[in-house]
Structure formats: C-alpha cells, structure tokens
Amino acid sequence: MWSASAVDQHTPEPGVGSLAEDYLSVRHTTEQICNPLTAEDQMVQSMPDASPSKWHQAHTSWFFETFILRPFLKNYRPTDDRYTFFFNSYYKQLGGHPVRAQRGLWSRPTLDEVRRYRQHVDENMMKLLEAGVPDDVAALVVLGMNHEQQHQELIVTDIKHALWTNPLKPAYRERAAAYSGDAVPLKWIEHNGGESLVGYSGDGFSFDNEGPRHRVLLHRFGIASRLITNGEYVEFMRDGGYSRPELWLSDGWDAVGVNGWRAPFYWVERDGEWRVYTLNGERAVHPSEPVCHVSFYEADAYARWAGTRLPTEFEWEVIAARAPVGGNLLESGQLHPSSVRSPAEARGTPELPIQPMQLFGDVWEWTASPYIAYPGFHPATGVLGEYNGKFMCNQMVLRGGSCTTPTSHIRATYRNFFPPHVRWQFSGIRLAHD
Amino acid sequence: MWSASAVDQHTPEPGVGSLAEDYLSVRHTTEQICNPLTAEDQMVQSMPDASPSKWHQAHTSWFFETFILRPFLKNYRPTDDRYTFFFNSYYKQLGGHPVRAQRGLWSRPTLDEVRRYRQHVDENMMKLLEAGVPDDVAALVVLGMNHEQQHQELIVTDIKHALWTNPLKPAYRERAAAYSGDAVPLKWIEHNGGESLVGYSGDGFSFDNEGPRHRVLLHRFGIASRLITNGEYVEFMRDGGYSRPELWLSDGWDAVGVNGWRAPFYWVERDGEWRVYTLNGERAVHPSEPVCHVSFYEADAYARWAGTRLPTEFEWEVIAARAPVGGNLLESGQLHPSSVRSPAEARGTPELPIQPMQLFGDVWEWTASPYIAYPGFHPATGVLGEYNGKFMCNQMVLRGGSCTTPTSHIRATYRNFFPPHVRWQFSGIRLAHD
Amino acid sequence: MWSASAVDQHTPEPGVGSLAEDYLSVRHTTEQICNPLTAEDQMVQSMPDASPSKWHQAHTSWFFETFILRPFLKNYRPTDDRYTFFFNSYYKQLGGHPVRAQRGLWSRPTLDEVRRYRQHVDENMMKLLEAGVPDDVAALVVLGMNHEQQHQELIVTDIKHALWTNPLKPAYRERAAAYSGDAVPLKWIEHNGGESLVGYSGDGFSFDNEGPRHRVLLHRFGIASRLITNGEYVEFMRDGGYSRPELWLSDGWDAVGVNGWRAPFYWVERDGEWRVYTLNGERAVHPSEPVCHVSFYEADAYARWAGTRLPTEFEWEVIAARAPVGGNLLESGQLHPSSVRSPAEARGTPELPIQPMQLFGDVWEWTASPYIAYPGFHPATGVLGEYNGKFMCNQMVLRGGSCTTPTSHIRATYRNFFPPHVRWQFSGIRLAHD
Amino acid sequence: MWSASAVDQHTPEPGVGSLAEDYLSVRHTTEQICNPLTAEDQMVQSMPDASPSKWHQAHTSWFFETFILRPFLKNYRPTDDRYTFFFNSYYKQLGGHPVRAQRGLWSRPTLDEVRRYRQHVDENMMKLLEAGVPDDVAALVVLGMNHEQQHQELIVTDIKHALWTNPLKPAYRERAAAYSGDAVPLKWIEHNGGESLVGYSGDGFSFDNEGPRHRVLLHRFGIASRLITNGEYVEFMRDGGYSRPELWLSDGWDAVGVNGWRAPFYWVERDGEWRVYTLNGERAVHPSEPVCHVSFYEADAYARWAGTRLPTEFEWEVIAARAPVGGNLLESGQLHPSSVRSPAEARGTPELPIQPMQLFGDVWEWTASPYIAYPGFHPATGVLGEYNGKFMCNQMVLRGGSCTTPTSHIRATYRNFFPPHVRWQFSGIRLAHD
Fold it and tell me: The pTM is what?
C-alpha cells in the first residue's frame, strides 16, 4: 500500500538530486499512487473529462518517448509504433489521436503491458540521461516530469470519481480520519494596491503560461485569511443559496437547473445529515474543513451571497508570493482538505500581522480571473506549443494547489485552469473584497 | 484456453444427465467462454446494448440466487445483499436496478470476487439440487440454465464488439480459419401453404413466448435452400444498394444516412479489398460464407433488390420443423458463420428433394415478422413475467440460432428478437418469395 | 368561418359528382378548415412531427403539380420551379427535400403566395380534367384527392398542437360544447373465429396497403361494444396505472419515465380537477367521452390493467365490415370525440344483438397489430411506391377514423399507422379479449 | 419601405429633443425597421439565439410596461396581464418566463395585437412623460430607450438569419450595392502604454458595465489603422487557415470540426467564386470590404496566422477615446460593412499621424478581453441588476458597434459581449501587436 512517508523520500527536490534521480523519483511516485488499485480499477473512465489510471500511466510514458526518446536517443526502438497514436492526448500536430471518451474501453494493452512500457521508457531514459544531455533536452525532461506530476494529481482526482460512480462506493484505501478541530476565525488581510510584478522569475522550472513576468496595477483590496469551511457553506445552502437566481451568474443558474445542484459534489443527505464521499470512504461532513468540489459558479454565488467577491489571480499571487510553499499537499497523504490545525497556525508576524492560511494545498482556489495570456506571451513553436496556450478561452484560473498536488510542483505563480462548471477537481473558495 | 472439444463434453443433453449435472455443465461452459479473457477485457462495455463479460457472469448467478436460492433454499446466506440491486438487469418489479449504460464502470466487485460469487451460488445450488426439488422449482432451474445459455451467446457477441472497439483490434483467440469452399447454388423449397400448427409442443423446455401452439394460415410460398453469401451481398453493394432509396424502408434509409452504413458491420475496405474483423482477428471476406452482422433494414433491402422478400417466422418454422437441429453452433468452436461444406450436404431426399441448409447455427435469420404475442399468450405472473412479454414491440423475430448458440438451446420454435437497426448480433439473410 | 354544413355540401361522394366537381370539393374543404387561422397561425410548426397549415396547403398542391400536371398537362407552366424541392415531403427518388423540422421557418412564400399557388394548380387541373383524362390519370387524381383528405386531418391535428403550445392557449374557434350524457354500459360482441377475408375489394378507391384481399385465420375473440371513456381511464390512473411497471411494455415504461406521462396528452390538473385542451379551448374532462390522445403504450397498459387486450386489426375489420360508415367524423364539426348519444344508439338487431358503437369517427383505435404488408403486397413502382410501403416498420395499425376524418375518406379496410409513442393524434382505446 | 433618411430625422440626439420626443423617436425607428417585413416574417425564430421581430417589438414594450408604467403610472391598466410572463426575456426575479427557443411558435398575440400593445404602451408613456417624471424615473426611461436600441440591432441581425434559413433566400429589401473601392493600406498606430483611465465618465447615459471608471496599466502596443478585409481573410483561407490546428484555440478547433466551418458565415462557394448573403440578397464577396460574421475563434486564428494578436478592450478604448463617433452605422442604411471610402479618409493629423478608421460602425470588433466586471463594479439591486452583470462569464468583449447600431447608442466605452463561437452578429477583426 502506498504510504505518505514513502512518497516523501522520493519527492524531487530541484537542485538536490541529479536529473536522473529526480526523474526516477517522479516516475516512482506515479506507480505508488496506482498501487492500491486493481487492473480493473485502472480501466475505469467514469466520464469523458476523466481518464483511467492505466491511461495516465501510459500517456506520461508516451510523453517522454515522443518528445525525448524518439528525437534524441540514437537507435531508440519503441515498444509499439501504434502507441504514438494510441496514447496521444490532444496534440493535433502529431496527426491524430483516439476519441477521448473511449479511453475506458481499452482492455489492451493490459496493465502488465503498460507497466512494461513504463519500464522500457525508463530504461531508455536512463541510458540517455546517464550519457548526459544538453540543456535544451534537460529542459524537456523537466517538462516531462512536471507533466507527469500533473497527471499524478489527475490520477487521484479521476479515481475518486471512478470509485464514487460505483454503487458499492468503495474506498481508495482505508485510513484514519484527518484532524478536524474547530474553525479559526476568518480575518481580512488588507492590501493597498498599486503596481506589482506578477509571473514567474527565477531559474527553476515554470510553465510557459506563468510568464512573461510583468507589471499589473492592483486596486486596494482585502483577501480572507483562510478558506471557506463546510459549515459556512451550509449556511449559504440553508439561506436558499441554490434557489435564489439573483445570486448567480446566468450560466451558473442554468447549470444549477440542468444538473440539479443543491450541494457540493460528493455530498449526499441521509436522514437530514450531510455526508461526503472521500477517498477513504463516506463519512459525515465536518464543519471546519474547507468546502471542496464546488464549481466556479458556486464559488461566485457564495461570494455574492456573503457580500464579497472572489480574488483576482494577481491579488492572490501578491499575497502568496510572501508565503512559503507548504501545507496539506500530496505528501501529507490525507487526500482530503483539512481544517486549520490550531490557532497557533493563524498567528501573525510583525510584517504580516494576519497570517494567510491554506494558500497552498487543501483545495485549488477559484479566482475571478479568466484564463488568458499574459502580455507578450507566445506559446512555444512546434507541437509542445499546444501544451498550455491553446486552452486560453472559456476557463477560469485556479491557484495554490490542492491536497493532491506534489509539493515540488506548486508555487505562487502557478496557474491552473478549468471550465467554470467543473466540480470533480479539489476546488474551493477564498473570499476577497474591494 | 477454451477448446471446442472441452465444451462438447459438458453440453447439457436434456434427459441424459441429472439436473445437477446439467446445471454444472452450463455453468462450466460460461467460464470456459470467459477463459481467454483478462480481467480488464471482462470490464469493457463498448456500447449501452452490450455488457461486460464479468457482468454476464455475475448476472446469471444473480438469476439463480434471486429466483431460486432466496425463496427456496432454507437459511441461504447471500454473498452480498447489495448484489440484489447491483446485478438486476431489467426486472422493474424488484424495485430498481443500475443504469444499464454504466455496467462498464464497475471495477468492483472484481473478477475474482465475481468468481467467488459464482462458486457460492453453485455450492448452494448443489445443496438444493442434491436434496431434491419439486417440479416447479426444477422448472425454474431449467429456466435459469437457458437464461445462462442466452448470456453465453451474448458474452461472445459483446466481447467481439468490445475488442473490435480497441484500435489495436486484438483477437479473442488465435485459431486456424474455418473451411470456406465455393458456394453451392441457391435453390427454392416450395410450400403450398394452408393451415399449419406453430409454436412449441412437447415436454422439454421452451420459453413462454413460443406458445401457445396454434394454427396459422400460410399462403403459398418458397424459401431459399441456404443463406445469402458475402459474394451475393457484395453484388448488392456494387449495384448501389446503399445509395438507392427505393430499396429501403424509410427508417432503414434514415439509418443508412445517420450511421453512414455502406457494408455489413465489422467490414472494412483496405486497398480495394473488403476485410472483416472476426474473433480470430481481421482477414479477407470470403465470398462463400454467409453474410453476417447485417441489420433487418439491410436484410430487407437486399431482399427487395433481389426481387424477393424475407420469410415470415411461420414460413421459416414449418420448414425448420422437419429438419434436425445441428450445424455450425457454439460447440463447433468456429465462432464465425461458415460456408456450406460440400455439395453432398445439399443433397435432397425423396420427401424433401431440396434440402434446407444452414437453418440452425451460422447466423440468426431475420424474418419479416414483428415480435408480438401468440394468440392466447399470457406472461407469467410475478417478476418472471417480465422475461419476454414486455419486449413485444418495436422488435423483429429472428430464427435458427447462430455460431454462438449452444446446440441444446435452440429449436425450430425458438423466437429471438432484436430491434431492426441492430448489427452487432450474428444476424444474416435467408430469402423467400410468394 | 368554417361551418360543418358548408363542408357537407361539398363532400365528394364517389360516383355522384364528376371527377372535376369532386376535385374542387376536396380542395375547397381544405381551405375552409384553414379559414379560422391567421397567416401567423399557419406558420407554426410546434414539433418536427407536425407541419404548418400553410405547408399542408402548399404540399397538397405540389402533389397534383408533380404527379399529374407536370407529366400529363401539355405546356404546363409551374408557378416556381424551386417549389419542386421546397414542398416535397419525403419522396427520396425525386432527388431531395428540405429538412422536415424546418418547415416552420419559412415565412416565404407567404400565405397569399401559397393561395395563388393553389389557384394556379386548380386552374390547370380544371383545364386537364375538363378535357377528359384516361383512367390511369383519373386514378392519380383520386389518389391526390385522398392524399389531400389525409392532410385535412393533419391540419386539424397539427394546429391543435400548435395552438396548445402557445402559453395563451387560444382556441381554434369558439363553439358550443358537444353533447355529453352518461356512458352506456360496455358489452362484449363475441366472434367464433375461423377463416375470414380481409382487405379491400370493390371498385372504389383504396390505398395499396389495404390489399391484396386475403384469407386470415381468426381465433375465437370478443370485442367491446364501445370505446373506453375518460371516466374509465381515470380509474386506471387512480389505481396507479402510470406507476406500475408490470402493466407496461418495456419501451412504454421508458416512455412514461422519459416524458413524465401521468395522464393523456392535453390533460392538465387544476385544483384537483382534470381539464382538457380542445380546439374550442380548455374545459373540464367529461367522464363519458372517449379517452383520446393516448399512445399505443397507454392503450396497451390500460388493456392489461383491465385484464383484456387490444384487438388485432383483423378482429376489428371483420366486425366493422358489417357496420355502415358514419358517426362523429369531420363533417359533424365537433372536432372532438363525443359520448354515445343515447341508449337507443346501442340497441341491437336480431343479427347483431349487441350493436358495435363508435367504430367510425371519434378516435382512431389502436390495434395490437404492427403495420406490415399483406401477403402478396407490392408497392407501386416509381416514386409513388414510396407512399405507404416504406413505412411498414416500427408502427402500429389504427383503425376507424376520428372526429377529424372526412366521411368519404374512411372505410372498414382503411389502415392508418403511427409509432407507438405518438400522442398528438386523435387516438383512443377499444378492448378485446380471447 | 424603410428609408435611411426617415431614420435620420428621428434619431434621438441626447440633449436636443425632450425625453418624450426622444422616446417616440426610438420607438418609431423600431417600427420602421420592421416595416419591410410581413407578419409571417416577424414570426420566424431560426435558432434559439435569435428572436422573432414581433417578439422584439413586444418585449421592448414589455420593458417600459414592467419597469416604468406598472410601478410609476397611477391607475395604469395593462393590455393583458399574461404578457408579464409572456414577454419576459430572462429576468428570473420576476418569477419566470417562457422557454426562449419557443418564441417562434407563438402566432398569438398576432402582429396586429402587438402593434396595439406598442400603441397602448406609447400612449401611457406619453401620459407619464408629459406630466413630468423625477430623475430616477427619467433614468429608467433612458435605459428603456437604450434597451430598445439594442433590440433594433438584434431585429436586423436576427431577420438576416431568418431569411437566410429560407431555401428561397429572400432579401430583406432591394437596394443598390454600397460603394466598394480598393482597400487602403493597413498601417499601425503605436502606443507607448502606461497608466490610462478607462470606463465611462460624463453625464450622459451609459450602461452599468462601463464603470466604474478606473486606471489600467497598458503595455506598449500597436493597433491596426483599419479592419481586416475579405481579401485578406481569403488569403488566410487559401493558406489552409481552417485546416491547421496550430493556429487555433482548442475550443475553436473543435468548433471548426463540429460545425464544418471553412469560411465566414453567410459565405457560399459557387463555381469557384465566394458569394455572400446580405440583407439585399446574395452577391459576390467584395475584397475590400471588412470581413464580417466571423467568430472570436476565427478572429483569433486569423491574428495568429498573421503573426499578430487581437487588441485588448482597453487598448481599443484608449485609441477610440480620441476619435469622434461616426461611420457606417444604422443610419447609413447600408446594413452591411463597407470599404474605407477613399485614401483621404485615411489621412492623419499632426497629433495622430496615422488615422484610425472604421472604429465605429461596420462591424463589432472582437477583442482579446473576456467580459468581466470592472474593479468595484456592483450590479444594481433588484430585477434590473440582471441586465448586464449576470452575463460576466464565458463571453468576449466586442467594441465599436456595427452597421446595424444606432449612432446615438454607441461610444468609446461601450462594451458588447458574445460567446466566442457566435457568428450571426456583424462581427469582424482588427489586429494589434505587442
């Protein structure tokens, strides 16, 4: 069984291990995440947006094979030439890929064959890396590792949905419940606005959509010290939140009606009590835990009900830029957002009298910002230009990572993005005000 | 690996073995059919009409548990009470069942658990049968065995579709191609019409929809001595069969347009040659083999093009009633329709100067008869009344069994039924004329 | 305003008027039916199955133009060559027609232009008919007249749906309510079965699908003396008719769920009272009137609930063959089914001690017979072969005409057909038993 | 027939006429636009996004009745209380409205009744206005007038689609073609960036979404002096623009595939020549006219192909703020975008050496800006808060008005918004670069 401590040992620490060591560590984590799952579990695609764990394992290997081994390893012999088409996700310039919604129909290659495929790719990657690679190839390897980390998060997110779809509601694994004490009071961190620099700078890895670093003009604002809790969200529900159109965006109100939303995803009411399906099985909703699995529409409606609004992605970033990365991330092994541990955690410093909490981990935080390009942004030329840029429409930016995000993968400038109706991600709410 | 000879040894011969032996034989055949399949293969539901092999194995066990063990075996302890809901197919009076199209999402129970479920049911059935059962319970056991045989056929039919959906087009098993000689000439067996008795009589098993036996008035007709071959069907295609609206029923013409039909299902044209996917993999279309995987609409259009028509189910039955059951059925192990073996096979007798060939096995034969109740038919009261009667609308009758039908399961009065657009069944064409 | 008496004067009586007089009479009736409707009303297509009144008026003219004037009137000059395509309904061999569901989008040609089109066709038809036509052309003219009568019924049926779709629920016309007394008792007319002749014989007009006349073998049966009333149907509803799966065909049960059926179409419950929308506006449901606007599924479920069944089309026909055509048909001007007028109506004769009532008019009666070809049926060659034959699949036969059927159009051998889920037709229930 | 000059006389000039005169002028223009249309034309709803002209005429009256007459005119007697529900478009807080897609089914109220409804509203509005109204009511009247102007534009846009849907392709009116000379060269207007003020200021009317006025930080950019022409867009098409995935946003590429886009909407290729449907009928595409009826996806792909990008809404606004409102707007009567008239038009001034052309009128210009709230924006409380704010998601901002926009309705700060796939609006392309 996968244990958090095992993961900890292998988390790539940029600059610590060699590239080859880091590579193996990332690959190993993927397999650990899949370990509690049977071959059958790894087949399930419970909706078109999600993918089977087996597919994630194969596709991440395909990424290294397609973009690194084929062009850069002399005499590389692929496992199966048909995989080039078979495990392509969405790179149109490669000449085609299977229909996304059919990934769950593929019993072949079997999980054993996919494992051999991973091994084959790893062996050849080692051959390449041990011989040493030029900087541009090394950059591609690091991109592939970050790509695989994104899929680690998706494996967890998608298997949660897959197992929940099963009427037997099996758990991903049994585990003692996380700590859940009382909620700490919500405070407001005020910011005077003005010109600020946003976007990535530094010499580590970042995605192309985090740059170019540029100046933005912020207006005076306040941002909440912590996430909105289940208890607070239940107040919204009790106050008719899901039946008052004046609280909702037009598309959001339509989504409420079409989908019959009346609570966060994974919640179910039994005998008057709200219960929630987690990766450890179903249990009561704990009031002090951050509300999770809400859409942007719900986050926005909640904020309007509360007389506030969601922060923009830059308001979030300038606050988060001052905070160290850490919290309830993948390595905690919780796989569920957790309450603020203790009042001590909330204690401020002279510089920052009110401490921002839960910025990293727990839940991805919906922002008020549509996902668009930064000024001067140009996607890479060639196939890898399709990685991020082509999705810059109809999606909203989320910030901060969740309890399923690897620690080494997240940072203050990181921009995640999903369409506003999506609920199967670990997504939650932080408020702001003018 | 599953071998035809192994199946032969266990085929239930009514009246030969004891009920317990017959029961075990049927159950064993199901497992043999599934043997070449991995747990992952047995997960696949490639369309809502089809079901995963694992589900078929579980549902057939559920049938015995629900209708025999629970009511009749004292102190029976079910494996899991949730299975009552979980593996119900369509019996509404039992209070609900899962959405059919989601059967492929269920990784749990695992294949191993389903196998244990089968074993548990078998052990308890043995307990019951060895103690001796009254006639009404014995009748239910035989119904359950016939029910399981229907699902044996569906396992083969559905896994063919499942594996074909996979871009890698894997075979169910490798096997030498069946004999395929030249086609024998098509002759016409003439019948003078008049009053005839149709429907089951005898003291063996039959389904409720095969009765009551009753008189029908036939008009003078002729029926073809053999099935239509691929070669003949290609002539229809070459003559613009799929692009001439005057040959088609209105709904059929719509189906051609919406689905883009231009050949039987599983056919693909490569470099000007028609090839076909079979359970042994893809190979060239053999002209003398019976055309297979055509819809009722295509069968009807072919008949119209040929200046003929399809037989009614009663025309078919009065001819078949004179012929012994036999041919290319499940036990042949071909799993594909085959040509008439030799001219000798076609040789007539004084009583029947033109020998009807391929009546049983090879392909289910579309008839011109909508599936409706016989005069005086009443479905059983209670839940099992839902078995056949409630489907008597919008479907057409097929007769004769296919290469995937167990020999002991088929007879001249047997009525199969499918909607007219369906193509994934092993269904073909026999002509008739006035 | 259209009055019933005006219609009476012009009803074509075969053999009475000349062909030209009959032609004009039929054409005139169409226009009378449309008279209460504005140009805007005549635009509405409230669902793909229905058509705008303006389209019906144009398409019936197109029929005469396409099949008679163009081939047989020398130097005929069409109004607009584009109408050949524009007003084709479904004749595929003519090379195409607009998408059916878009008929309601065509503001041009305007109603005035369509009226001029009708006039142009009429003037040219008169030119042709006054010069005298050979028998085969005369037969086409009579076919065109019967075709137009079918569309007269559809104009009424479709405009009912169109006006009902409007939240203002306007009436087609204001009119005093029809007589609605108490229901007369339902009795059973018994028949001994045996061989009977069915299908049209005679030298008047009949559709191709009414022949060839042929022998059928009937089994002993009984048929109800009158239609099922609203009051009786309400009993079925109160007894949980719409929530008991055991009463329904599988496809019917699905239709109940998907469409949320819980009463006949056009019924609405207000303050605990069932009310019905009629062409004269909304009013209370009268218990003694025949139930109307039910699907085959509902008719079948009602019969099962009542411990009976629907008659076959031949059982209906042998009874109806002995009865004169008459009753609440189009010329009554009711446009709604009506109660049996008085007990006197139900009085039998020595030959037929129990009088069958309401066989013609009021509502089309669903039969248990799928719509298929009679033995030896061959559709006409050429385009007009598409008239009836190509619909012989997935539909059920209805018999007897309704309150919207012209009297001269109906007879005992007449076969109407609709898919089993359809409810906007004036369709009702007559029971039978074994 | 509606003539441009007639419109000119009645265009409301803020500050010139009295409120009552302005009101009547706006109302009159609506009726002039509808004049060339029959009652049948005014029924057509050719897709759910569009509405019938009759509905637009009624809904704009409903706006005055609902928000002004009912609350503020003592003893006001409405025409029909059911209209409150019937002609509500999307104001959820009013308690419901009909399904949008069914507006084309309503033959009642007839056009004559709607005209009487307009007259009734006008008479009562006159009563109110002549008595004098306080400022807050006057503001609502001006909002209602601007609301009606938006619907004037939609009437033109929607009737174009409605008539085009008709296979006969009728023209809205016959009119001599607009001038179309050669294209003037495209030049770049450079801007140094820096902080700028955007959003409405002044004491005229503006929509709530144009404020609050606030500072934004612009980065150095250039913007094109004129719109992209058909000739330039054809170059993109010839260079494989619609078949090169690297040019498209992911959602855009999907839209190309699903809809089969290969040219702007209303274009059709006949014998190798591109032709275009206009409100004056079909004619050849003129190369120097601005390309029109393209989606945001096409505008974005064109810009990428050209090595440029679309401007942000603020880049557009700071340039437009220096230009007077004028150009090919509704009052020109062209109802189609037109070429830059002459090189003289392009002549610069010392202050602005390169003259921006076609900023107002011709086509709405897609910007790179998603439609979101300005900092500090709060929608009005109450029902009218639904006017703009609830649509701030999944839409893109368009600027500048089109050839169907009333002159008095547009200004530099005006924000129009549509989803990125929409093509039936008069929408086109202006380029920018970093």
Answer: 0.94
Q: Are residues B151 and B196 in the same domain?
A: no
Are C50 and C150 members of one domain?
yes
Instruction: For residues A114 and A160, state if they share a domain.
Output: yes
Task: Check which CATH number belongs to the domain holding A198 and give it.
Answer: 3.90.1580.10
Q: Which of D213, D246, D249, D366 to mutate to test the interface with A (most CBs of A within 10 A)?
A: D246
Contact flag D162-C109 (C-beta cutoff 8 Å): no
* Chains within contact range of chain B (3+ C-beta pairs < 8 Å): A, C
Indicate if A97 and A224 belong to the same structural domain.
no
Judge D/B contact: 3 or more CB pairs < 8 A.
no
What subunits touch chain D, counting only 3 or more CB pairs under 8 A? A, C
Domain membership of residue D305 as a residue range: 188-433
B194 close to C (CB below 8 A): no
pLDDT in tens, A89-120: 989 888 889 899 999 999 999 999 999 999 99
- Mutation for A interface: D196, D219, D369, D390, most A CBs within 10 A: D390
CA angle centred on D148, ends D147 and D154, rounded to 5°:
100
Look at residues D165, D197, D230 and tell me which one is the last residue of a structural domain.
D165
Kindly state whether residue A177 falls inside one of the protein's structural domains.
no
Quick check: A347 pLDDT over 70?
Answer: no
**Contact residues on chain B for A98, CB-CB shorter than 8 A:** 167
- The chain C residue lying nearest D170, using CA atoms, is C108
CATH of the domain at A121: 1.20.120
**Is C174 within the bounds of a domain?**
no
Query: Is the same domain home to B150 and B280?
Result: no
List of chain D residues with pLDDT < 50: 1-16
* Partner residue facing A92 (CB), from D217, D245, D393: D245
Whether A193 and A158 share a structural domain? no
Q: How many CB atoms lie within 10 A of CB D1?
A: 9
**pLDDT of B373 strictly over 70:** yes
Domain total for chain B? Answer: 2
Q: Which of C86, C105, C109 sits opposite D44 (nearest CB)?
A: C105
Q: Is B72 on the interface with C (CB under 8 A)?
A: no
